[in-house]
């Protein structure tokens, strides 16, 4: 039933600054040249490559791996970035185990795929370290586009349009750009300020101006942007937070996982962040795993991820689930939260009902309840789009409705990323949305199409 520590046992300094730096260090260190070439030599360079089909951005995987094998690292990076300008970050955070690596034919012959993600990081990191450029802008067109949101979708769209010679202004609500790459991903996945180095690389093309602390619906409006620019691309993400809908949800110690990760990512000394001894994370996605593992790495004694359905239904991949468990995180399945118990205004425990699926697939809660003691409860049950700022657009299921070209119900407005209906919570999918929208915007501006 957890430890015997007092209710609200939350403190900073559970690890030293040195321990925090080590614990939150690089999950997968960069390959050496020898390691990269050895891994590249495992590739069969399939003619009809399933890995390329599985990549949402259609990177020519066999080509860039062959380029690594022949010591053409810059060429490999160029091949990657032509299709995915955020290929460096995607190499770190993309669930390659369920995308390109899952379909690698080496799985059949050897039981192990070619480590495509790590090879992709090898190539892009070496290019960034060299300081070389691989892209140039076309002649100025005199056209201006507003991109709202400086995350993966927004920056992908901005870069594509700037390459075509258009002028792009990115309006970012936070103090710095990067979106979830900067504020929402576990620290051990993106060390050495990589998110901002990638932003600098993208903006270094030219033709892109970033204005921070500009929030749609507050100090800028969609109508104003449409009047000031020739086209608008919305990449506003999921700014709202889902509530558990329980009594005592406002108790001290009940926290939003995304907000805490953002605080952790911006902290100069993560060891100074308050950490509970007994942590319960409610949710089953990547964010749940990220906050659970980081809580453990920052000194929490007992960390449990509680999810109301089974392992197969978890949004976190099998790899991520295993990562959590190898770090000492317990995963409690078929556990639906029903009540938060507090003492003196502080969270004391979470009560769960054991759950199951009926014959129709509907989740059913039983009368069999149990409690898990907690000093901190993290909500990681998803986010919502703040739709008030885009009320003039057609919505679908609480998100912005778009067509295949990412065009909204307004002729001069496009949208992409997880703010759109059907949008996926993946950096690589957001990058592809930005690319698709940029092609459509360019056609609209130059051909009237």
Descriptive report:
The chain has a 5-stranded parallel sheet, sandwiched between helices. With 449 residues, the chain is an alpha/beta fold. α4 packs across α8, α6 packs antiparallel against α8 and α13 crosses α14. A hairpin with a 2-residue loop joins β12 and β13. The chain folds into 3 domains: 155 residues, FAD/NAD(P)-binding domain, CATH 3.50.50.60; 98 residues, Fumarate Reductase Iron-sulfur Protein, Chain B, domain 2; 159 residues, FAD/NAD(P)-binding domain (3-Layer(bba) Sandwich), CATH 3.50.50. The chain starts with 9 loop residues before the first strand and ends with a helix. The radius of gyration is 23 Å and the shape is globular.
Beta-strand content bin: 15-25%
Our measurement of the CA-to-CA distance between the termini, rounded to an integer number of angstroms, reads 63 Å
**CATH level 4 superfamily of the largest domain:** FAD/NAD(P)-binding domain
Low-confidence stretches: none
Radius of gyration: 23 Å
As for the number of domains, it is 3
CATH 2nd-level architecture of the largest domain: 3-Layer(bba) Sandwich
Major sheet strand order: 4-3-2-5-19
Tally of individual helices: 16
Shape: globular
The level 1 CATH classification of the largest domain is: Alpha Beta
Largest sheet: 5 strands, parallel
The helicity comes to 25-40%
Structural class: alpha/beta
């Amino acid at each position: 039933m957890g430890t015997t520590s007092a209710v609200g046992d939350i403190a900073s300094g559970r690890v030293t600054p040195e321990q925090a730096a080590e614990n939150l260090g690089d999950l997968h260190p960069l390959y050496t040249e020898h390691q990269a070439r050895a891994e590249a030599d495992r590739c069969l360079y399939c003619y009809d490559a399933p890995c390329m089909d599985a990549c949402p951005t259609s990177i020519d995987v066999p080509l860039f791996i062959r380029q690594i094998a022949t010591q053409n690292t810059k060429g490999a990076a160029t091949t990657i970035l032509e299709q995915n300008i955020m290929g460096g970050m995607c190499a770190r955070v993309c669930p390659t185990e369920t995308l390109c690596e899952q379909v690698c034919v080496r799985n059949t012959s050897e039981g192990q795929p070619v480590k495509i993600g790590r090879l992709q990081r090898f190539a892009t990191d070496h290019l960034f370290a060299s300081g070389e450029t691989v892209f140039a802008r076309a002649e100025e067109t005199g056209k201006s586009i507003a991109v709202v949101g400086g995350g993966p979708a927004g920056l992908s769209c901005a870069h594509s349009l700037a390459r075509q010679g258009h002028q792009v202004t990115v309006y970012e609500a936070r103090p710095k750009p990067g979106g979830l790459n900067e504020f929402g991903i576990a620290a051990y996945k993106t060390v050495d300020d990589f998110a901002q180095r990638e932003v600098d690389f993208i903006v270094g093309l030219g033709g892109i101006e970033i204005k921070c602390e500009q929030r749609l619906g507050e100090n800028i409006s969609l109508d104003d942007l449409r009047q000031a620019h020739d086209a608008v691309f919305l990449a506003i993400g999921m700014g709202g937070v889902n509530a558990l809908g329980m009594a005592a949800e406002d108790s001290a110690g009940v926290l939003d996982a995304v907000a805490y990760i953002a605080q952790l990512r911006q902290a100069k000394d993560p060891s100074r962040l308050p950490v509970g001894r007994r942590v319960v994370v409610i949710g089953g996605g990547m964010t749940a795993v990220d906050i659970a593992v980081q809580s453990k790495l920052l000194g929490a004694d007992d960390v449990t991820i509680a999810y109301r359905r089974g392992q197969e239904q978890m949004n976190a991949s099998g790899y991520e689930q295993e990562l959590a468990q190898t770090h000492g995180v317990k995963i409690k399945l078929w556990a639906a939260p029903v009540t938060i118990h507090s003492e003196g205004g502080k969270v004391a425990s979470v009560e769960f009902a054991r759950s199951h699926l009926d014959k129709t697939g509907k989740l059913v809660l039983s009368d069999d309840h149990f409690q898990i003691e907690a000093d901190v409860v993290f909500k990681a049950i998803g986010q919502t789009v703040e739709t008030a700022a885009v009320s003039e657009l057609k919505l679908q299921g609480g998100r912005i409705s778009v067509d295949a070209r990412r065009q909204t119900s307004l002729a001069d407005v496009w949208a992409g990323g997880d703010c759109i209906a059907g949008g996926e919570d993946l950096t690589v999918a957001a990058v592809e949305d930005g690319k698709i929208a940029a092609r459509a915007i360019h056609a609209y501006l130059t051909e009237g199409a």
